[in-house]
Amino acid sequence: MNKKDWQDGLTIIYPVMLGYIPLGLACGMLLYDSGFTISAILLMSLLVFAGAAQFMTASMILMGASIPTIVLMVFFLNIRHLLMSSSMSKFFKKSSIPFILIYSHTLADEAYAINYNQFKNHEWTEYQALATNILAYLSWVVSTVIGGWIGSNWMFDITVMNYVLIALFIALLINQLVSKLVIIVGLIAGGLSVILMELLHHNIALVIAAILASLFGYWLDKDKDNQKEKVGYNK
3-class SS at 36? Predict the structure, then answer.
């Protein structure tokens, strides 16, 4: 990757990086309160890199959940990454295995949404996409470690950070309302979330709704691409 790749990545990802700072600080403080050392927070952010899962892990530890239960919940919460990675695979057909491994590890919801939009609607390369991922990744890791350090020295009420997380995702959703497909998938995900929450009375309903809506959106997008290929072939 060259300097321009990093500059292009920073230009497109810096709002997410800024949004990660308060969330990462809150996550680091919460993890410290739940018993993690600062070095453990660093290791977890480097190896897991999943904000929602790290918040959930801290909360489950405070509630006394067992390790197998936490691992299982993290798996189900992050299973959406399989869908995200598969939908991005068409843009990395010529990439090497090490490159794909690094890209996949640093892929998060926000970077996925931005990179997918860039690939679909702009001139965007695999190296610009990787730079975008890594910058967001580093922002999160550094923020959680600083949050852990702050938590080890001062006490803060981090309840307000729940609203910051919601605001971040709303902002990302609005920025991605660029097509009928995205709007349809968003409405389906919202509707399914309400229905499944009423039926299951558990936050896993949100994960299921997101997976089902993503699958439906992927099918619609794939069908649309197939239709375009058929039209081009007939011409």
Answer: coil
Determine contact, residues 148/32, Cβ cutoff 8 Å: yes
pLDDT in tens, 97-154: 999 999 999 998 889 889 988 998 888 999 999 999 999 999 999 999 999 999 888 8
Q: How far apart are CA 104 and CA 89, in angstroms?
A: 10
For the stretch 74-90, what's the b/e string if a residue is b when 16 or more beta carbons lie within 10 angstroms of its beta carbon? beebbeebebbeebbee
Q: What are phi and psi of 122, to 5 degrees?
A: -140, 170
What SS3 class is residue 63? coil
Give SS3 for 90: helix
What's the pTM? 0.71
Q: Name the 3-class secondary structure at 64.
A: coil
